[in-house]
Amino acid sequence: MSTIAENIAKVGARIREAAQASGRDSASIGLLAVSKTKPAQAVREAFAAGQHDFGENYLQEALDKQASLTDLPLIWHFIGPIQSNKTRPIAEHFAWVHSVDRLKIAERLSTQRPAHLAPLNICLQVNVSGEASKSGCSPDELAALAHAVTQLPNLKLRGLMAIPEPTDDPVQQRAAFARLRELQNGLDLGLDTLSMGMSHDLEAAIAEGATWVRIGTALFGARDYGTPNP
Ligand SMILES: *Cc1c(COP(=O)(O)O)cnc(C)c1O
């Protein structure tokens, strides 16, 4: 079995190769390590191998993990579905939220962001696969949502995020990521972030402009969902 450090090196090599193949600077592509369902010790190992940014989907699990890792200078990203009664701890304990898909959530995050912290970095999650996915705003709703979010004082709108319908076909993978990039360009808001690409499709995402790839399985191994998460 590979160690987390070896996996980080392998994923780093995949990112650099994909960047080179499309003439991009690999320094413009961040690796977000998705540590959901994995123990704090796995985060420690990844940190020891140079990884600073971590993504979590389940709030209570994330808060517990953060509490046992306060000795490390980690940057936490919330990437899961958001219930409106859970916005306060998200506003208090994360640097980024990638999964904002409606204005009510954005307003609550802005109101609840503590004044002593920098503005919360926000990506709007867009449903680029139509009916196949339930999360994310529709492309039709995006412009109004994006413009409204730019008006909220304690948020910094950085870009867009998508989780396209899984497919092994690189042409289809690229088409979905290209759609997200085109939507971002269409907004004309000078946004600098495209959060797209996971373990199985990071090459396609980088080819279409990803600036964060969100990688779980390829770093930490397969997830065991045997214990249900709230
Ligand atoms: C779990 C998850 C990932 C990581 O997926 P892998 O296929 O394990 O790399 C990325 N993004 C989101 C939103 C996730 O929920």
Can you put this structure into words, describing what you see?
- The longest helix is centred in the first third of the chain and has 18 residues, at 4-21.
- This protein is an alpha/beta fold.
- 40% of the residues lie in helices and 17% in strands.
- An 8-stranded parallel β-sheet has the order 7-6-5-4-3-2-1-8.
- The protein has one domain (4-220): TIM Barrel (Alpha-Beta Barrel).
- Helix 7 (170-187) links the parallel strand 6 and strand 7.
- The protein contains 9 helices and 8 strands.
Structural topology:
Elements: H1 4-21, E1 30-34, H2 40-48, E2 53-56, H3 59-67, E3 75-78, H4 87-93, E4 96-100, H5 103-112, E5 120-125, H6 139-150, E6 155-161, H7 170-187, E7 193-195, H8 202-207, E8 212-215, H9 217-220
Parallel strand pairs: 1-2, 1-8, 2-3, 3-4, 4-5, 5-6, 6-7
Helix pairs in contact: 4-5
Bound molecules: pyridoxal-5'-phosphate.
The site of pyridoxal-5'-phosphate (PLP) has 13 residues, from β8 and α9.
Quick summary:
This protein has 230 residues and is α/β, with parallel strands linked by helices. The protein has helices spanning 4-21, 40-48, 59-67, 87-93, 103-112, 139-150, 170-187, 202-207, 217-220, and strands at residues 30-34, 53-56, 75-78, 96-100, 120-125, 155-161, 193-195, 212-215.
